[in-house]
Design brief:
Number of helices: 13
Order of helices and strands: EHEHEHEHHHHEEEHEHHEHHHEE
Strand content: 15-25%
Largest sheet: 9 strands, mixed
CATH topology of the domain at 4-114 and 204-221: Peroxisomal Thiolase, Chain A, domain 1
Shape: globular
Number of strands: 11
Low-confidence stretches: 309-313
Strand order of the largest sheet: 3-2-4-7-1-8-11-10-9
CATH class of the domain at 4-114 and 204-221: Alpha Beta
Helix content: 25-40%
Structural class: alpha/beta
Distance between the termini: 18 Å
Length: 380
């Protein structure tokens, strides 16, 4: 089977109240990604837009960016959810044999949306929605269940926030680079017990784009250093209703990771993966997802971080970009993680570059409390 490579990547600066329109943000990242790949829009034969009618406040949200993405005269389709799933669909379109080069682009303007209202609509309309559940208070339920099941405490969540905001100090695109302490996190305003303001990712605007190419084109258009191969991918969804799953059980992520590792030929992820960009929409999530990805045993995510293995100088650097705690444009998040992994594999991540990166992992979630997961293995 022909392989697929990422040959171009670009992101905007992540900000609050970004003045650019959806189309302006997409034009910026698609133009930069094409320049990064060394090709023109003429070589692209289809576009995947990661966008949402709910977040955009309009129907057929991809129409707002179709011209800006270069889709005129080409096939364009929409994926609603995290950017990792958009990249999956983009790869599948190439592997179908119908296309040779795909633009995958994602945009999000959280500051023009009603986060509480939109995430409330993700729940069952007859019962859960009426309770007022949203992304923050449902995450608080999951955090509390995780604490109860494994004996984790709030200060351990806070260490993730300290680490990732500190990592963002080396990322010029991050929205919230900060030097903070565990005490700062603990003293920040409580939003939904046990989550405090600095445990939660910020409302963010931004966009990202990747250029995917079939192997025959990737080798023709780019140098070996520029090509980052999509070596493995896995995705899995858990039950929709919160009450139908143990919120501290990472079973869907374990299945997604198992598929990705098998496709990429990875048997020991902690030894074979050099850097990981993991969804940390809330601080506790990084601990849970480290466990689900097989980097440590269940209930040991907090100890993993405390031992320093998830620090920038540890055996496995996690979220050197600053993660979603430092910038979280919801639809874009997973694509941003993949773009960071591309830079790390190429050795182009600047001050945050991890030494000797051959293989990187990018992870994204969709749905409340990590209902669905997508795991990517990217490498040289």
């Amino acid at each position: 089977m022909e392989r697929v490579a990422i040959i171009g990547a670009a992101q905007t600066k992540y900000e609050r109240n970004k003045p650019d329109t959806f189309a302006e943000m997409i034009y910026e990242v698609v133009s930069k990604a094409l320049e990064d790949a060394g090709i023109t829009i003429k070589e692209v034969d289809n576009v995947v837009s990661v966008s949402s009618d709910f977040w955009d406040g309009r129907t057929i949200s991809s129409m707002a960016i179709s011209d800006a993405s270069g889709a005129f005269g080409k096939d364009i389709t929409t994926v609603e959810g995290d950017g990792t799933f958009g990249a999956l669909y983009g790869m599948m379109r190439i592997l179908s044999g119908s296309f040779g080069c795909t633009v995958v682009c994602a945009h999000h303007k959280g500051t023009e949306s009603n986060m509480r209202g939109i995430t409330n609509t993700a729940f069952d309309p007859l019962v859960e929605r009426r309770l007022g559940l949203d992304s923050i208070n449902s995450a608080a339920l999951q955090a509390r269940r995780y604490m109860s099941k494994w004996g984790v405490w709030e200060e351990q969540f806070a260490r993730v926030s300290v680490k990732n905001h500190g990592n963002a100090m080396r990322n010029p695109l991050a929205m919230l680079p900060m030097e903070i302490t565990v005490d700062d996190v603990m003293a920040s305003r409580k939003l939904a017990d046990p989550l405090k303001l600095l445990d939660c990712s910020p409302v963010t605007d931004g966009a990202a784009a990747l250029i995917l190419a079939a192997e025959r084109n990737a080798k023709k258009w780019t140098t070996n250093k520029k090509r980052v191969w999509m070596k493995g991918v896995g995705h899995c969804s858990d039950a929709f209703r919160l009450g139908d799953r143990d919120l501290a059980d990472t079973r869907a992520l374990k299945q997604a990771a198992k598929k990705a590792y098998a496709m990429a030929g990875i048997s020991d992820p902690l030894k074979e993966i050099d850097v990981a960009e993991i969804c940390d929409a809330f601080s506790y999530m990084e601990l849970m997802w480290l466990e689900g990805l097989g980097f440590c045993d269940d209930g040991m995510g907090a100890e993993f971080v405390e031992r320093g293995h998830a620090d920038f100088d540890g055996a496995l650097p996690v979220n050197p970009s600053g993660g979603r705690l430092s910038a979280h444009p919801v639809q874009v998040a997973g694509l941003a993680a993949m773009a960071e992994c591309v830079l790390q594999v190429r050795g182009e991540a600047g001050e945050r570059q991890v030494d000797g990166v051959e293989t990187a992992l990018a992870h994204g979630i969709n749905g409340m409390c990590g209902q669905a997961h997508c795991v990517w293995i990217l490498g040289k």
